[in-house]
Each structure stands twice: as C-alpha cells, then as structure tokens.
Protein 1
Amino acid sequence: MSRELIPGRLSLPDLVRVGQAGLRARPLRVLLSALGIAIGIAAMVAVVGISSSSREDLNRQLQSLGTNLLTAGPGKNLFGEDVHLPAESVAMVGRIEPVTSVSATALVQDASVYRTDKIPAGQTGGIQVLAAQVDLLPTISGQLAEGVFLNEAIAQYPAVVLGAQAADHLGAAPHQQVYLGKQWFTVVGVLQPAPLAPELDNAALVGWPAAEKLLGFDGYPTTIYARAVEDDVTAVQKVLATTANPEAPNEVDVSRPSDALAAQQAADATLNALLLGLGAVALLVGGVGVANTMVISVLERRGEIGLRRSLGATRAQIRSQFLAEALLLSTLGGVGGALIGSLVTIGYAFSRGWPAVVPPWALAGGLLATLVLGSIAGLYPAIRAARLSPTEALSTP
Amino acid sequence: MTALIELERATKRYAGDVVALDDVSISIGRGELAGIVGPSGSGKSTLLNLIGTLDRPTSGTVRIDGHDVGELSDREVSALRSQLIGFVFQQFHLTAGVVALDNVADGLLYAGVPRAERLRRAAAALQQVGLSHRMEHRPHELSGGERQRVAIARALIGHPPLLLADEPTGNLDSAAGAGVMDLLRGLNSDGTTILIITHDQQIATSLPRRLPISDGRMQPIAPPGIGATKEICHES
C-alpha cells in the first residue's frame, strides 16, 4: 500500500540553476565577494604571466644573439694585484679550433671623455674609454644605432664610437666632437644597447692604433670576446684561460655573458615567488570573503531553506545547493581574475615590447585554486544550512 | 485501508521542559477536510509540524500513509514530503523576483521530474487555481490573494494526497480569504485530504470537521455552530 520513499534526484542543470538563482538575487554582494577572489587570481596570473613574458623575451634575445659568446679578462694574481693579459692573447685565442671569431677591447687608463673641454675633470659620467678592435661588432652581435663603426682607416684617427648610454649621457651624435683624453675626437657612430656585452653601453670606443698613438695606451687587451661553435662552447670555455695566458691561467677570468643574463632572470624568480605569495594571500582573503557572504546568505535565507525542505529537499540537496552557490561565486571570481591577470600581462608586455605569454598552466592552476577555495569556503555554510531544522527555518520570516 | 494521518499519544517537548503538545491522538481519513482550531500558543503549529513531518514527536508515534515518521531517515522523510504532502503557508514563501510559473514549478524540483515537464504541469496547476493570466508575473506584481493561489498551485502541482494549510487566509482580506477557502474546498471535493490550521472561528465553523486544541491538548469536539471554547465543550 505505501509507496517506496526514495527522494528524487536533483539533476546537475537544476542544481546549477538553483545556485545561479541564489546568486542573482543579490548581485552587488556577489560581485564584491567575487572581486576578492578575482584580485587574488589576477595578481597570481599577472605575476606568472609577466615573468613568463620577460623570460620569453630573453629566450628570443638569446636565440638571436647566440649563447656561444665567451669572454676572458685579466683577474688578479695570487697576491691580489691586478694583472694584464699578454698582448698576443687575442691571436692565441683565435687559434683555438672551434673559435669562429675573436675580438677584444682594452681599457685605456687615465682617459676620460667629456662633452666639451669646459666640463670639470671629475664629471666623467662613469664612461670608460676603451680601445676596440675593428671586428668587435660582429663578434658580440652588436648593432649600430647610427653612423659607422671603426674600420682600419678610421681606427688610426681621433674618432670614437659611443655606447648607447654614453651617447645619451654626452648628448652626442655622429659628426659632433667630444673631448676625450684632452683632445677633440669626432663621433662616427653610436651603438644600440648590447645585451651580451653591457659594459659597452657606457663606453667610448676608440681605434686600437689611435689609442696607442694619442692616448698612451699600453696595448694589453682587457676583454677578449670569442665566438665558438655551439657544441664546443664548454670545451672552449675550459681551455680559454690557459690559451689566453699560458704562464698564469689562474689569473684569467672567463665567463659566458648569456649565463649572466640567465642568472639575472633567476634572481627575478625570487622576487616572483614573493609576489606570488602575496597573490596567494589576496586569494585567501578573497576566500574568507566568500565564506562570509555564504554564512550571511544562509542566515538570511532560512525561510527559503525551510520552504525547500517542505517541498521535499533532503539535507544533502540543501547542502549541494549552497556548495554550488559558493563554487559558482568563486568560479566567477576565478574566471574574472584570470581575465584581468591576462589583460595586465598583455598590457605590461606590450609596454615593454615583450612577447605576451600567459602560460595555460597558470590559468588552469588559478581556476583549480578557486574551485578548491570555493568548496572549502562553501562547506561550512552549506553544512549549517543543511543542519537547520525545517520548523526553525520556516518560523523565521 | 489505514487513515492518512494517525497520531498516537504524540508528545512534543522542547528544551526547558516546555510541553508544546501533550499526549495527542488523532486520526484523519482520506478525503477529509478538517481544521485544527485554537488560539495562538495552543500548540496547533507544533501539531502541523508533526503531521507535516517537519518535526518528530518526543514520544508517541506519527503515521502518515502508514509510514512511522519517527523511524524514517532524513532522505525517506524528505521523499515522503515531496510525494505525499503539499504545504501552504501564511506568509506564502514565494521566491522573490521569480515569475509565478517558476515558483510553482519549484514544487516538483525535488521530485525528480524533468524541467520541461515541471513547467508544463506548473502551467496546468496555475490554470487550476485560476491564474493562467498571471504566469509571467513576479510575486510583488500580484495581490495577496493571488500570491496565496500561486502557493496553493505550488503545493498541488505534485498531486499530493494531503494538503496542509497553515493559516492560509491569515494575511488576506476577507474577500481574498473567501476565494482561497473556496479553492481549498474545491480541491477537497476532487479527493485531496485537506488540513487547515486556523484561529478564525468563522472559517472553523465552515469546516466539516474541527479539531480544537488548547494548551497542547486536544479538546472534545464542539457541535457545529457553537464556539469551541473550553467551557462549552465540557458542557456538551
């Protein structure tokens, strides 16, 4: 006679519809608490996105510049005194089998460069005067911004090529004159920033013969630049010191500039971890906001809960309803945050001229985080709603 | 066939030793139209909650359609509510901002009926209560009487054998109240068992069966036409 008492299933679309209806009834509150989540996710996505974009930019830069450049310079001897490389070291490095090109610069001691002869001697602007070999540019993948580079002919005369920063500092352009080592030198060219040889950016490059003739240059190279066949870079790196200064290989500093760029990137990663942590804190605060909204929502909607119970909703169905609401709410924030984070990344990358990269794993991770957060934040209010006795719920208007 | 509602020595005691319902035994058969009548605080809401399976007795048994409510799990009792009982409340309990049709369709939300079918039956239920022209109206666009009709449509959409109405005319003017009562009588003549809770003597006297209650106890039944006060009951 009596029927089987099996509650009807609440289908997923119905559950989502019920959850949505609950949110739609309080749009402003929903928007504000979703914003809390969105800020956290946006911060995390933007941090990951911006650092990925900058890494991508570096990778492209390295790809175009090559990672096969090595430098060698004089270090200090066992007694901590400055030493110099042998004058013939450049030629010797060039004789290493896998080395495809080699060039060098040398610091010209006691020479400084000024805009005019009226500038006080102390205001050097930190610009180094370097003697440069004429084949320097191709070896370091350097580019001219304007003018020409030193060639065999120009290198004999008082002519100078300025690094990007130095040119900016001196306010000099080709055909103008600068006061260098107490003589007037004519600017013949200006370099673009050289990522693999940043020491050239704030330097004034004069010809090797001119430096010897006009500036009392001793002829010892201070930085040897060597390009090697990609596969043999490590091998060349090992023998570079011995080759450059066979008498005292321990007095040679060898480095690989592309490594330095990568290391700088790694240093940025520490900062990124910190920012990511801040984003996580923001996200957590957002989660607390969602929990708060849901708790208040349960308190306010006791009448509705009572009605649903009277219509035959089981405790589990009430629980699912509020959990669905919390999940929808946090997903709204998560999607919004991922969108804002991506836009910030694109905007920032655009302003820096980087390729914009938002890693899919960051977006997926962000959404996953909001889902986890939404379920944690929604669980307690949902359990409270489900535990409410129907009579108690109905007696409050 | 057993009675639809059967209470046997049902007692409800709240914390602090407050006895809301004391040793109540009643039996209501299928197809009856009965009223639980009593002043406020008499325990009639507690009685309705027990019959509506929204609450369980502290002692004694409540049987609805043969099911001992005290023995059922939350899932079973929820299923019982969705299959057997329709509720009509004094405050209507309509969802604000949702049109009448959807409000009524929600009456089947927990019965496992697909949405399209729910909407179809909601339209039929609204027609039955004479509101087919108000389907797309939201609660605040309806009069009190219309709101209560929407609530009744929601209660009867699943064709429950039992309709519980808690002061259904309490928030309505007399004309709207009379309309709602006519509607309930019509449903009863179609076979639905209806139990109305009221403190309105006029409504009470119009019902075929009255169950007077005061201080948590059932009172002897007063003859029709005479007020169900204690003194008169004892005399009769």
Protein 2
Amino acid sequence: MLKKKFTAIALGLTLSASSLLASASAEPASAGAAAAAKINDPAKGWDTLWYHVIRDISIIGVLFALVTAWFIWQSRRRPGNEVGASPKLSAASAVGWTVIPIFVFLSIDLYTAANGWVLWNHYRDVPAQRMEVKLESGMYSWDYTYANGVRTQNELIVPAGTPVVLRMTSRDTLHSHYIPDFRVKEDSMPGRVTYLWFNPEKPGEHIVTCAEYCGVMHGYMAGRVIVKAPEEYAAWMQQEETKLAAANAPAVAEAPAEVAKPAAKATKKI
Amino acid sequence: MNLKEWIFTTDHKRVGVLYLIGSIAAFGIAGIMALLMRAELSTLGPTITSNPATYNVWLYTHGAVMILGFQIPALTGFFANYCIPLMIGAKDVAFPRVNALSVWLFYVGVILACLTFFLPDPPDVMWTGYPPYSIMTTGNTAMYSFTVLILGFASIIGGVNFLTTVAYMRAPGLTLNKLNIFVWCTLAAFVLQLIFVPVLGTAVTLISMDKYLGTHFFDPAAGGDVLTYQNLFWFYSHPAVYVIFLPFIGVVYEIITAHSKNMVFNYKMVVYGGVGGIVALSGVVWVHHLYVSGMADWLRIGQMITTLMISIPVGLMMIGLIGTLYKGSIAFTTPMLYALGVVFLFLIGGLTGVPLALPSLTIGVSDTYYVVGHFHYVMAVAGTFAIFGGVYHWFPKVTGKMYNEFWGKLGFWLTFIGVNITFWIMMDVGVKGMPRRYYDYAHFPQFESAHQWMTVGAAILGVGFALAVLNWIMGAINGKKALDNPWGSPSLEWSTVSPPPHGNWPTPPSVSEDWHPYGFKKD
C-alpha cells in the first residue's frame, strides 16, 4: 500500500517536473504553470477546423444552390420564352469569367490548405513529454507493448494527462487503429512503422475500431482505450509489472530476449 | 430482329446498345447487392445472413461491378459509341471491328465478375484489392485481376478507336471549337484511360503473381512493400473518377443545353479550363486516397494542395452548367430533371470533398461512412443520374419511340428523395465515427436507427431506378412514335432519322460557318 502511494507520488513528481522542463525549453517567454500543459491537441483542432470548413462549404453550397434555383425558376419555358437568349460573351468577359473564378477558387483553396497544414503539423508533431507504446495489429486483435515490456490485448490503458504515442506495425495485413473520440487513425502494416498520438485528458473509456478492411471479421475488430487517473494507472502498472516479473522468473535466460524482440524488430525498420 | 446480326455487328450504334444492355444488367446486379447490404445492416447483428464473408462478397461485387461493369462501360461504351460518330457527322467509328471486339471483351468481363456467385471461393478483396489481404485470402483474387484486365483492355482499345475517329472523321467544317462538350469530355476521358489503365493492369497482375507464382512485390519479409500497390492502384483509380466524371458531366451539358435551348455559357472556359484542367491535374492527386496509409509527410502535404486545386476546373465546369441555365428556356422533361438533379447532387458531393482534401481533417473521417456518402454523391449517384438522364434524352433517337413522361418523372423523384435520405444520413453517421465495410456495427449500437433510415432510403431509390428501367423497356416495346428531333436541337445526331440507319446519313453531312451544336433557333 505504502509502496503504491510512493510510486504514484514519484510518477506525479516526475511528470510535473518533466513537463516544467519541457515547457521551459520550448517556450522560455511564457513561464508559469499554465504554459506547462500547453499541448496542441489535434482532437480539439480537428473539431474547430471541421466546424469552420463545414460552415464555409455550406455558405458556398447554399449560394450556388440558390443562384441555380433562381435561374431555373426565371428561365422556365413559358409563352414568350420558347428559346434560350443567353447573352453572347465578349472576348474580355469570357476571359474575365474564367480568370476571376480561378483566382477566387485558388484563394479559397490556399486559405483552406494553410489551415489544414497547421492542424496537420499538430497531428504529426509529437509532444516531448509523452508515453510511448508499441502496437502490433493482427487478425483480429490490437496487441500493445509498453516500454517496460508489459503487454495488453485490445485494451490500451493510459494515464490521464499524458500524451500517448503509438508506434504501429502489423503482423499480417493492413489494419487501421481508429479512435473516433480522439479523431485519430493511421494504418498499420507489415514492414513499416507508422505512428499516431493522442491526448487523453480525462479518465474514461473510448472505442478503438479497425478502419481498414482486413478480412472476414473486420467489423468485429474492436478494442478500448481506458484512461485512468494517474494514481490508478500507476497502481495498475505496478500490478502488471509484478505479474510480468513472476511470469519471467522461472525462465530467466529466455525472458529478456522475448521481451526485447518486438522492440528490436520495430526499431530496425525505422 | 436477328440475334446473330446483333452479336456480330460492327455498327457503332448496335455496339453502343449492346454496351447499354450489358451495363444496365450489371447495374441491376450490383444494385441488388447494395439492397442486400442495406437489408443486412437494418438491424444490429446478423439479419439476412449470419456469415460476414457473404456480406463481403456482396460489397466486393457492388463496388467492382458498379464502377467497372456499369459506369465506365455505360459512359465510355454506350454514350461514346452511340453519340460520338453521330455528333461529329461520321458514318461509323474508325475501326468498327475493333469496336466489336471491345464490346465482346466487355461481356466476358461482366460474366467473369458475375461468376463470383458460382465459385467455391469468391473474391472478397473489395474493389481496391489491397495486399497483403488479397494475397493471403482464400478468396479467388485471380477473378478480380482478370476482370480488371479484360475490362481495362476493352477500354483501351475503345480509347484508341475514338481518338482516331474524332481526329480524322469529323464532318467538313466541324472544327474543334464546334465539338459538342460531350465529345470533348469523352476524348479527355479516353486520354486518361490510355495513360492510366496500364498502371492498374500492372498492379493487379503483380497481385496475381504474388499470390499464385510466389513473387514478392508486396511482401516486406522479402524486400517488397505493401504501399507500392496502393500507389499504383490509386494512380489509376483516381483518374478513373474523372473517366467517369468527365463523360457524365458531358452528358449533363448535352441535356441542359437541349432542354433549355440555350448556348453553353463560356464554351472555351468549359473546354480548355474545365476539361483541360482536370486532365492536367488528374495524375497528381492520388495520394489523397492514402492520407492515413503511412505515406511520406511531404507527399501528403504536396498533394493536399493539388487536390484542393481540382476545385478550379471543376468549379469552372459548374459555372458553365449553371450559367447555361441563365436566360434559357427550360422544359422540365424527365432527362432535364435528372440533369438538374446532377447539378444539386454534384454540388453537395463536390463540396463535402473539400474536408477530404486536407490530410488533417481526413484523419478523422477517412474510411468512415462520411467518405462513402461523399463519393456516392459526387460520383456514384451523380454519375448514375447523368446516365439515366442521358438514356432518356437519346431514347427517341435510339429506339425511334417515346418513353412515358409520367413514370419517368415519378422514377426521378423517388430516386432523388431516396438518394438524399440514404447518403445524407450516411455522411452524418460517418462524422460520428461509423467505419465503412462493416458487416455488423456491434460496438456502435447508437447508429441502429440511422442505419434503418438508410435502408428505407435505399429501398425508395431502388424502386425509382427500377421504374426508370421498366419505363425504357415498355417505351421501346410500345412507346409512341418519336419525332426525329423532339428537343429541337441543332446538334448533328438529331439531324438524321430516328433510329438512324446503318451509315447514319444517306449523304454525309457538312456544317456551315455559322452552325454550332448549341446554336438554338426559334422554331
């Protein structure tokens, strides 16, 4: 009991110290506790950008649809309007009707691209203070290996408040580790290591589901991300470590090699 | 009517009709697959089959047959064959026997695709056929490869044929700036087919070699790379979207000009900006299908910009379409309803594609129902509406008879309503996290009622499409006799009798200086 508490406190201290250090090195100008937790959470960025893009395309779509509907109504065939009478464009207006739309569309494109790019960088730039977990996907399970060799299947247990990076590979075919709640997915495949990261803030449970067709049972390939409070997580990890040590104890010679194997395989490919 | 005459025909119009019959049959089969899938998904857990493998075969057949057996052959087979020689005032295509070969190959391909149901191990690789699954599966991937190769080959020889035809067999006086928009669009589509089909052929051949001959192109354990296939596949299959889009928007242009009796708005912008721009960009946007596949970051960012830029030529083509409506004289005939339907469906489909051009937003919705809803709006349903509208539009020319307007319009409204119910809800549940290609949604029980609404929508649109096909059959058998030029169009295909005889015109037409296919006059 005492030991558990001690680990939790130690973990908490390490975490806060490392986050302070990280913030100090990254943003020397904005000192203070608030800045310590400064993480560009892609899930939040996704929601904001999604809202903006959907709003913009809705405006464009409604404008086009209204103009179209108005033209259709105005130009319906009726007595006195038996044949079309569209004005003949002069060369200048023909060019104008081409070049101006091109620049309007291009500017919207570049504006959208810039916003998309910023968010993309948040998705790809992994925070310095983080927890690394290896994932090997297979038909049909998600197998996680923690840095200390603890393994879980279909359940990724993480502490709240620490960004988690998954280094992913696959032992058979393509899979895609999709966590809808964190707005994140990336394919895993044999022969390459891909990564994704997410920022679990509050304790809770989140569905993990496979988003790349992987065979007959593709629709059932699901797991969970379980976010625990840091103390609970530490307690759980302590328990798993003990179990792992117990399991490895009889075969001391074999154990380290076995634990190290997936790690070695993964790092080689990077 | 002599069956042998039809099978061994070299007449471009009969080849076209054979393409139409084959592709509508393929549409029926693939459509039934879609309805079976919707029925399966109408409740949580097993509904009409307890075997997910069966569902996966339906899904494979639906995708592969709709694209390779229905849309591409209907657009570049039926419409191109029937209309291009008539529109340019030619007696036939340049190589009539090659044309006959292409329709034979098409039938072989469709029959191969349909053998899926009679094989012990049907292919279950989806229409994309990604390795390593397509190599590991016990399903018959060779069927997939051969279907793709045969249909691709049919398409390539069709392409050679039509490029030659348009280059050398135009009527005297018919300059390039007087070609119908449809002819321009189809030519561009064939250029894309000629450039990109060989890449797809390579990809599926390598898959079969890996599976059956023991090579290791896609096997990382032996130095291969699984991503190579995805690159090769989408290097073809994104341009393939334009192979469908260009002819179908061309058909829509023909319908909208003829039924609003109006000149195309800014013809040169549409042809050189729109069609030309799409051809120019089509080969450098494929990575947006691989935004979550583990591609290099710089490629994902680079092709984000090219993908967004596709909005420019497509936007110009939309401006051309909507501008053509301005000060027109719109008759709300059945083909016109379908064409106007395409304008609205394509607007929704095109704009919902904007988030999918950004790798960052795609991370949230890739491989979900959002993508499925989006591409059904933009390509599948918009394309099918254009095909149905086009068949109605040229129905008097092809059969010499009229279809029934009442049943035609009823069919249109049913499909239009059904489509919007099904695919709008589909996009919505996709954003909320429903992944695609799921036999069951056991861990997303909250979507059950949405799935039921989608099934209702699918049933409505199924009835609508069936009504349209029945309407054609009834019209072809005992419709009223049609005029030679019921829409009052100056385009050349309407200048001959309906149906046109072998050789199309007693004396080949020539066009005068002031003639234009869209130069409508008061009659």
Protein 3
Amino acid sequence: MNLIELKQVSKVYGHGVSQVQALKEVNFAAAPGELNLVIGPSGSGKSTFLTIAGGLQTPTSGQVLINGQDPAQLTAQQRDHLRLTRLGFILQAYNLLPYLTVHQQFELVDRVKKDHLTPAALQTLLTELGIDQLQAKYPDQLSGGQNQRVAIARALYANPAIVLADEPTAALDSQRVQGVGQLFKTLAVKHHKAVVLVTHDQRLLAFADHCYQIEDGQMTQLS
Amino acid sequence: MFLAIKEIKHAKVHYGLIIAMVTLIGYLIFMLLGLMLGLANENTAAIDAWSTKTVILSKGANVNLNQSLIKTADLPPLKAGDSLVGQSPVVISRQTGATHKQSAQLIGLRADQPIYQHLELVSGHRPQKPRQVVLAANLRTKGYRLGDRIKLAGQKQSLTVVGFAKDGMLNMTPIVYGNLQLWQAVKGGPQFAASAIFSQRTFQLDTTALKAYPRATYVNKLPGYTAQNKTFAAMIGFLMIISMIIIGVFLYILTMQKLPNYAVLRAQGIPGRTLTVATVSQAAVLMVSGGLLSLLLTRLTMLGLPASMPFQLSWPLAAGLTGALVLLGTVGALIPVKLIQRVQPLDALR
C-alpha cells in the first residue's frame, strides 16, 4: 500500500496574467521501504510538491492520499493530527527552537506525541548521526551541519511512517552526505518507512529506489 | 508551560528586563496604593476609632464638621453609643522647651460618653480636669511629651498634655482631645452643645435643625478626601492598563521573531493550542514574578520610610492588585496570541 499518492495533481497560484502553474498533472507514489528522490532546479515546483505531498496545502485539481486519507477532506485539526502522527518533516531552516537544548527538542516531542523512539533507539540514532555528544548544546552552539542532523534526528524520533525532507543535505560535507543518505536508506528498508527527499544534491542518487525529475511543474520518473 | 519556562531561562536578559519593568510598574502601583491608604487613614483614623455609624450635624453645615454647631435647645435625646463632639480648628503653641506651633483640631468630649470612654491611648491618661488635653500620638515625632504645657491661640490659660492618643488624625490634621467645656470656651459660650453627634447606631431625628448622615456620606464629603482617593485610584488604574499594553507589546515583538520556528512546529503537527498556551503561560510567569518582586521591593521600602510619611499598605488589597496585574498581563498576551493563530504550517516552506 502506498503511503503517499498524488493522482493528476495540479496547482495554480494567482489569477489572470499573474497566474502561475506550479504543478502540472503530477502522479507520484511512495511506498513503505522505499527511498524516493525528487530532483529539480530552483523554481521548478519542488517546494509546492513537498507541501502538497505533506498535506500543508491542497491541490487545485487532482487527488492526494496520505496514509489513505485525503487531506482536503479533513479539518485543520485532523490535518495537524495526521502530520503529527504519520509525517516527519525536515526543512532547510528553523527546524529547532533556539531556546531548547538538543535533548529538550526531543522532550518537546515527548509532550505532544506518545508514540516515539525508545531512549535506546534514540541513542543509537544520535550515535549514527554523530551528535550523541551534543545533547546539552543549544542550536546556536552547533554548526549548520550539526543543526541539520539534529533536525533529522528530531523528525525521526517522532517515529513517523512517512519522512519528507527538503534539502536535507544542504549544509553537510560529502562524508556526512554519504552518512545521511545511508541513514535515510536504512530508515526506508529496515524501519519500513516511506522516505521522500526533495533535493538538488546529485550525491544522493546512489541511495534512491525511485528518482523523479521535476521541471516547470512537470514530474517525470527517471530510471 | 514547558516552552514558556525554557525560553525564559534561555533568554534571561530579554525576559529579565520585562520582569524588571513589570516589577517597577508594580512597585509604583503599590507605593501609590500605600500613599492612598495612608492619606485616607489620616482623614478617617479618628472616625474609624470612634466606631462611627451616623454623624448628626446642623442642617445648614453642608456635611462639614467645621461649619456645624448644635444649639443646646436643638439637642435630641441621646442614647448609649451617642457622643457629643465639639470641634474647632486651633493652633497650639508649646510653652515648655523649644517653642513650636502646630495646626490641630480641638475635639471636646464628655467623660460619660463612648468616644471618651473608649479613647485608645499609647501613653498617659484621659483628660480628667478642664485644663488637661490628650494629643495625637504622631505629635511625639515633633517633640511633644507628657507634661508639656501648651496654649491654644487666642486663649490665655495654658493646658497640660496628659496623654497621647492612637489614631488621632481627622481630615489630615492631628487632634487635641479635651473636654467639652474647653471646646465651649474656645467657641464662646455654653449656648452650643457641640459641633456634632457621632453615633454608633442608626439615628432617627425628629428635629429639622439637624441632619443625620451615614458614615460613608460624611467621610466622602471630608474636604479633599474623595478627590484625593479618585486621583490615586485613577493613577493605579492607568498604570495597570499600561502594564497590560506593555506586556502585550513586548510579547508581540518577541513572538514575531519566533514565527518561522512556530511555522515549522505547526508543519510538524504541533497544535496551535500548544503554542498559544506557551505564550499565555509565559505572560503569566512574567507577571507573577514581577508582581511578587514588586511586593518585596515595597516591603523593603516600607522599612526605610519615615514615620511621619502617610503610608499604609493593606496586604490583602495589595495581593488582590497583584492578582489583577497578573490577569491584565495575561490578557495583554492575547495580542501576540492572535499572531500565533494566524501562523500557517505552509509558512514553514516560504
């Protein structure tokens, strides 16, 4: 069963002469155990795709199913619950609250969601990401790469079935990119999660099960 | 509360300054309250000490004790709880030791009536002879002592100070307690029975020459009393509203800086209610901290205030005002809450 499905999805912003078609009849599916890579240049519609696939906004036409539910048919509160329980978002910036230590970022998840990783599993995750020694640090005491890895750990700690990441390797060096690519691959395969990475980092291609190119709002599946 | 406390602990300077400002506003409110109550007490201390329920004045006096004179012929039958009070503004001058002049109110009493009998003294005894007087206790700070001899302006004979009375202030002026004959001598003769009757009961009059007023009506008509209280109450009210706006504006500015983070949290499914509760509880923590610190600061200040300063703080009232301050500050937090409610999860990717 696909955890995310986009069927003939189009998204149009604005009206008349200022109208922009951000997505054109996009079809996409992400199943558990698979790592999907969506690649495209800036302004190609990657972010729009991510927001629609993550239930943050609804399409102009077509249908979206997340975990079998159409977000357009849900109330705002139900959509919040869907994102909290089924989706893990990793964004480029502002992922972490500046006044919480790394450890407290996970504590915040504890307070709003019961189903999360065990302390032992969290410790393993932090070790894999190389941030197990940073738990007492605040975000402003970490490098960009460390911040991004904490954001990844924070999203995964909530134990989502679907992981959506926007440029997850933007601030990482090549060695870390390999590590993070491997981590997402492991998550998909071992932990049976549907992983969707939106990026223009070609170094992640090696880890992808399915690769999609998006350009001018049109999505095509690569090999 | 988790987010609120963590943020306050992390940004100590930011929030320390807000707490300092709330503390200073609270301090100003409590100092004004203390002055308001202190001055009010100097207006009514004697009336309260006399357990007054009704004041009977001559009809044409316009609720003014200074203007009231009750003729002996108009005197109604008195019962237990009624006291004749002769009142006259006087200037006293000390005859022993260093010369000193002091404006005061002469209060003439009858020894068989309740005000005289329940007069609470801090030292000495009640006047037992026509030329003996009891002074308000606060005149001791001006050097008056038991055994001092004083003169009333315009009177030839001197008087002996035989006691000091607690709560001896009426309409901001210290009282000189003597007997009714002394007052009649000052007023010019026995044709006047008294200035007023202060009664501890509800008084029914069957004469048109006099008029009975409830305690509250009489007190509110004391010269300057109501205007003074209203002025202080208005200042306190405005300060509380200002504190509400200040806390709202500060939290609004701080919240604006946090909106990108909040958008990401909303995208991650954190309910808007969690963020709203964090902001409102943060305001409550700031207001409670500021309120308690201002109470402490006020208490410390009271230790250093001179005894002559009319300052009196009612702790239950101060606690009530602290509660109102916390409530208003929390209401002020509703300004940034509107901002949080407008944050859309989609903003996280913009």
